[in-house]
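ESCALATION

Customer reports they have been waiting on this structure for their group meeting. Please prioritize. Original submission:
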Amino acid sequence: MKLSLENLSQNLSWKGYRLPQYDIQAARDYTKAHPVWLHFGAGNLFRAFPAVLAQRLLTARLSRAGVICCEGYDEELIDRCYRSCDHLSIVATVYPNGTVNKEVVASVTESLKMSEDEDRLRQIFTSPDLQMVSFTITEKGYVLRDDQRHFLPAVGQDILQGPQAASTFAGRITALCLARARAGLAPVALVSLDNCQNNSHLLRRMTTDLAGGWLEHGHITQEDFDYITKKLTYPLSMIDKITPHPDERVCAMLQEDGLSGMEIFTTSKSTVAAAYVNSERPQHLLIENDFPNGHPAFEQLGVILTSRSIVEKSARMKACTCMNPMDTALGLFGCLLGYTRICDEMQDPDLVNLITRMSEREAMPLVTDPGVIDPFAFLHEVLGERYPNPFLQDTPQRIATDTSRKLAIRFGETLKAYYNSPVPMHRATHLTYIPLVLACWLRYLVGVDDEGQPFQLSPDARIGNVHKLLGEVRLGDQVTEERLYPLLSSTMYFGINLFEVGVGERVVALFNELNRGPHAVRETLHKYCGEKEPEPAW
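Update from on-call: job pushed to the front of the queue and completed.
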């Protein structure tokens, strides 16, 4: 049985599936004429969370419109995950006890390709009904400049040629915003739903940089520039839901139900996908309430629409304390110790002690409490339910991707808080576990696992520059503070000079322990994270 509108309408055997409880064709017809919500980024997070929110809005009669999806990077997903299934998708929510809730999601009314559907995108952007344009394009999707702050060549070409000839994703998005401005329509909200700190700032900077370049070269007017930079809004968001690669066990389950076309595939751009997405139960979404043309009734679905300061505090709580630092720790140590699943790492007492002590003892004393989410409840949900879930096939290799872009937020902000704290015991020189994770990143960069075997580093756009600063380090080398100073003092990678806050020396010493030779990673990890704890450094 193929996942299709025809099979849904013929009431074939869908026992055990939650099905759409609204007129799918009516929703598609209405959305075609009255687009309210356009989303860029066709990956797993969108299908597992925002698309399900759109389905809930339709089911509850809180909206007549679904969501339109567009992909601007890996357009193969549109053909294989959307159009081949009549824009339907299956969302499998997996619980730690093995229960799987399966739902057919039909809220995506159209799936578009940035390269082919420019006319339709322009129609949507110039519709008076449009309220919101959201994005899940990953943090690197917003990058326009290299590490020397020069525009990437394709972006520079867009700036020189103007909006009519824009070819990059950023250029086309900004040109579409410009089309809305010139149509004299009310501004809308551009909302990044990417799981990264300051996501609204990244999105705003993307469009502002393009518009600023066009203004400088005479391609647009000051009024055009002001619309994009001052009238469009860029609400900050904090989104949280683990959506790993599709799981073979879920695939087998769907095939046993009689569904065909569920096979996992890898696109030519290395995206792993399927006609279904598996995810966990816990999810959180807060959005700054700044929508100049209205918004879908998200607040009726548990989404928190609130002030920017509360969203900032929630994002900081998650990114700097209650989850993301532990992600990095498990990702780096997992790669070195040969793990391929996060849930398996949660059976390793040394690793569990590492992330628990790092979060509870070193990060939580300086946690930012947003007031709408309990940080301790959030942390214990992560440790007790989310990471140990054996039915979430998340991998340390995926988590280790782009680590160089993540350290400044995940650890640098906490180190800054220690540096600025008036409390005597809040001194970075007292820390053990945060420096151990930072040292582990250096050990990871050596590219040899704890058995002494080479392994493939996860993709990281900055890895070339990082290795230039690190220099050639081999397993067994013992390095000096002087040699590591160029990297450990870099605010680009750590958000702060590690030596200035008092942890640089500790990171160097721990790296040398981790890099002694084969099995030194396990020995060092057990030394500091075994049941018997080491004496305090002070």
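Sent to customer with the following note: The chain is about 45% helix and 10% strand.
Escalation resolved.
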